[in-house]
């Protein structure tokens, strides 16, 4: 007898096919889901929302500032020298610098591990495991309406855990700041300057908004200059050669403080100036945040030759510094003598 065959009706064929598809789906759904999740995670790691990064930068500056303030008030500085500057001045290092560095550096790196973060200090002892909680202040949410995603590989973060360490050791608290700057492809985009002893924080994001503004007026006919008190070089003679011997030159501590002196940052008694100038070598973590804030407000920070400063690559800026807002910056540059770092150091 011929073997009997099994014949399926069209409905049976359809049911069989559906069962097969179901089995395949259950077999591969988990794999597909995992791959989609990994893809989404990769997208998250490869891009960063600038509004989030602004909020994180503000939080990092504040957390670092708490350490700076606590150690100064407890008088547990553990002060020592970390060497000499190019001008031969002693560079101070304190526990405030180191603790602030650890707070700021690891808060950013633990939140965005792929970001390049450059700090003035290099003590990266483990132990800081905190991540940003993702909270964005109402001020930032109100002023920066929508986030903008940028490739993580294009970002360099510069942090100064304690600006004006010399003045910090002298208990000249008004000059002390903590700073964070975010540069994209070498251009400063986010700047945060925090004053630990008053709690004041200035921030700006280029192309978006800021919580600080320029003053109502500046003098172009007789500009007042603010300069470094501890790394001045021969800046006074440089300014007088360019603008006359009667030009007012005020020394002050900290690059962050000197940028705030150009703005309407009335958190406490502080110097006011029209132009910030520096004629010796200066590190990028000292100036990047101020550069970003001025740029966001329509101001300028350049080398003494009027060149834009690139915030990628090496940490140093050997070309001096000229910063202004609401003034003809090119006209200021044109008045400067030919800069020679050996002559004015």
What does this structure look like?
This protein has 345 residues and is of the alpha+beta class. It has two domains: 48-205, Fructose-1,6-Bisphosphatase, Chain A, domain 1 (2-Layer Sandwich); 225-344, D-Maltodextrin-Binding Protein, domain 2 (3-Layer(aba) Sandwich), CATH 3.40.190. It has ten helices and 16 strands. It has a five-stranded mixed sheet, with helices on both faces. Strand 8 and strand 9 (200-205) form a beta hairpin. The radius of gyration is 27 Å and the shape is globular. It starts with 9 loop residues before the first helix and ends with a helix. The relative contact order is 0.12. The model is unreliable at 1-6 and 13-44 (pLDDT under 50).
Summarize the structure.
The protein has 10 helices and 16 strands. Helices cover 37% and strands 21% of the residues.
Keywords:
globular, alpha+beta, Fructose-1,6-Bisphosphatase, Chain A, domain 1, transmembrane, 345 residues, five-stranded mixed β-sheet, 3'-nucleotidase activity, disordered N terminus, D-Maltodextrin-Binding Protein, domain 2, EC 3.1.3.25, Inositol_monophosphatase_CS
Q: Give the averaged pLDDT, no decimals.
A: 86
Shape: globular
Q: Could you spell the SSE succession in H and E letters?
A: HEHEEHEHEEHEEEEHEHEEHEEEHH
CATH class of the largest domain: Alpha Beta
Q: Please identify which CATH superfamily of the largest domain we are dealing with.
A: Fructose-1,6-Bisphosphatase, subunit A, domain 1
Strand content: 15-25%
CATH topology name of the largest domain, in short, is Fructose-1,6-Bisphosphatase, Chain A, domain 1
**In CATH terms, what is the architecture of the largest domain?**
2-Layer Sandwich
- Residue ranges: pLDDT <50 for 5 or more in a row? 1-6, 13-44
Question: What is the helix tally?
Answer: 10
- Structural class call reads alpha+beta
Q: Total domains, how many?
A: 2
Relative helix content: 25-40%
Sequence of strands across the biggest β-sheet: 4-6-7-8-9
């Amino acid at each position: 007898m011929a073997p009997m065959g099994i014949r399926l009706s069209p409905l049976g064929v359809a049911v069989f096919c559906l069962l097969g598809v179901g089995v395949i789906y259950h077999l591969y759904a988990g794999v597909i889901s995992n791959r989609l999740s990994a893809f989404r995670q990769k997208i998250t790691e490869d891009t960063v929302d600038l509004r989030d990064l602004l909020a994180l930068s503000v939080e990092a500056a504040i957390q670092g500032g708490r350490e700076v303030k606590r150690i100064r008030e407890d008088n547990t500085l553990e002060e020592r020298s970390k060497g000499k500057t190019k001008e031969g001045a002693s560079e101070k290092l304190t526990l405030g610098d180191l603790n602030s560095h650890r707070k700021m550096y690891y808060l950013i790196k633990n939140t965005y591990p792929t970001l390049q973060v450059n700090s003035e200090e290099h003590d990266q002892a483990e132990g800081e495991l905190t991540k940003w909680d993702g909270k964005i202040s109402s001020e930032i949410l109100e002023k920066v309406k929508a986030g903008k995603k940028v490739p993580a590989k294009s970002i360099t973060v510069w942090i100064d855990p304690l600006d004006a360490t010399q003045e910090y050791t002298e208990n000249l608290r008004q000059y002390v700041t903590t700073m964070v700057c975010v540069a994209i492809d070498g251009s400063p985009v986010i700047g945060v300057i925090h004053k630990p002893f008053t709690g004041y924080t200035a921030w700006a994001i280029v192309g978006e908004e800021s919580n600080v503004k320029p003053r109502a007026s500046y003098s172009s006919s007789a500009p007042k200059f603010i300069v470094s008190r501890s790394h001045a070089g021969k800046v006074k003679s440089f300014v007088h050669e360019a603008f006359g011997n009667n030009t007012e030159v005020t020394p002050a501590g900290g690059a962050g403080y000197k940028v705030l002196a150009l703005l309407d940052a009335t958190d406490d008694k502080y110097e006011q100036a029209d132009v910030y100038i520096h004629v010796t070598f200066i590190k990028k973590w000292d100036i990047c945040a101020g550069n970003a804030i001025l740029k966001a407000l329509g101001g300028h920070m350049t080398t003494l030759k009027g060149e834009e400063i690139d915030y990628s690559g090496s940490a140093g800026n050997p070309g001096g510094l000229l910063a202004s807002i609401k003034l003809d910056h090119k006209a200021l540059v044109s008045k400067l003598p030919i800069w020679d770092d050996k002559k004015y150091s």
